[in-house]
Amino acid sequence: MTKQQLPEGWQIVKFGDIAKHISKRVEPSETNLEIYVGLEHLDPDSLKIKRHGVPSDVEGQKLLVKKDQIIFSKRRAYQRKVAVADWDCICSAHAMVLEANPENVIPEFLPFFMQSDVFMNRAVAISEGSLSPTIKWKVLAGQKFLIPNLEKQDSLVSLYKSVTSAEEKAISLSNCAEKLYIRLRETLISELNIESTLTLGDLGYTFGGLQGKNATHFNDNGNARYITYMGVFSSQIIDCNGLSHVMISPSERQNKVKTGDVFFTVSSETPHEVGMSSVLLSDIGQDDLYLNSFCVGFRPNINKISPRFLSHYLRSAFFRKELRKLAQGITRYNISRKELMKCPIRLPDIDEQQRITEKLDNAYKCLVDTKERAKTNSSLKVRVISDSLRG
User: Fold this and answer.
1) What DSSP state is assigned to residue 55?
2) What is the largest CA-CA distance in the chain?
3) Which of 91, 126, 148 is the last residue of a domain?
4) Buried-most residue among 101, 197, 277, 388 (CB within 10 A)?
């Protein structure tokens, strides 16, 4: 696009003309700063840093960050991690520390621009490497972008702040709903006055996940679907919409999943991920459904225990504490199916299960609704920013 073809009020700039690369390195053991920001502390599509570590958590040289500078993950740019520091700190060397060049761009405009699809798609395209694609500053600095002039940037910043404010309010509401649900769940389950404690093995039986599969079997052409490890870890209730596919031959004898089954993560590098559970409560449909090999399935006896009650109970502090006692390992934590069945459960009668479930279902529905609203607002924010930058 030539200058004559540019929309009025727009200009073509190199990224290196609007952003400065700051690369001062710091030894964590020698700094007086109290905050360390790793890539794991950054949330996709959020300029806010909501959690952090401390310098003593890490070794090796890190990057010095000053308040209001931008931290951009140059590794795996597709994760869309860019944030603005609220304090002086140090950050991962797998990030870039940037600040705006005020001669060519309004400082508040730059981080919003970096959240746009225009910037992120380019960042992904210029990343180098297959296992852990990374961006080089020299390459990024030379990239040309179409951006509005300073006057238009100023008006867009006001728009971006408005949609970001709506996003943050929705996220805050979702966080409150989550805290209320967890408090209600822990209160109801801790108040159970059950003298005789059963074990999980008294209430059903376990089955294994997929076996004998490699990467070639997991693709969109698969004739069956499967539940992933992260699906079990991250979701209390699994929705069958959008599940990945796997190829199963007619001669294979794999354990099929059905509605009401419970799933546990049984192997992880971190103890808090072991034993996370989810319950399949949605309609499976006509396709065969299977479970990831790093998970174990549990089929409850519905005459003794309600799957919906289980969906809440198995993530309670009481159950998680007992389950973690059974995890074995040093660098990797594992729970065998045999040990899993030994985990104690305080089981009320069916009528009491129903009473507790109704209360927790209502609270959980509120949580899900607010999370969906927050997700919608976040998508809207990115779309507004991206659409406004298409010239």
Assistant:
1) G
2) 82
3) 148
4) 277
Domain of residue 312: give its range: 195-347
- C-alpha 22/C-alpha 328 separation (Å) is 44
Say what angle helices 350-388 and 117-125 make with each other, to 10 degrees: 90
Q: Which two tokens stand for residue 103?
A: 């001669």
Radius of gyration of the chain (CA): 25
Strands 267-268 and 289-291: unpaired
Q: What is the pLDDT of residues 91-140, one digit of tens each?
A: 999 999 999 999 999 999 999 999 999 999 999 999 998 778 999 999 99
Q: Mind listing the pLDDT tens digit for each residue in 67-88?
A: 999 999 999 999 999 999 999 9
Distances (CA, A) of 262 to 34, 70, 269, 310, 376: 42, 43, 22, 8, 29
Asked whether residue 143 carries a pLDDT value surpassing 90, the answer given is yes
Euclidean distance between CA atoms 236 and 365, whole angstroms: 12
Four-residue CA torsion sign, 309, 196, 264, 53: positive
SS3 content of the chain, % helix, strand, coil (to 5): 40, 20, 40
CB atoms within 10 A of CB 330: 5
Q: Residue 281 belongs to a domain with what CATH number?
A: 3.90.220.20
Q: How many domains are contained in the chain?
A: 3
pTM above threshold 0.90: no
Residue 334 bridge partners (DSSP): 267, 328
* Environment class of 212 (CB within 10 Å of its CB; exposed 0-12, middle 13-18, buried 19+): exposed
What's the CA gap between 345 and 313, in Å, rounded?
9
What lies within 8 Å, CB to CB, of 231 at 6+ separation is: 238, 243, 278, 292
Same domain, 164 and 295: no
Beta-carbon contacts of residue 89 (< 8 Å; ≥ 6 apart): 33, 34, 35, 36, 37, 52, 65
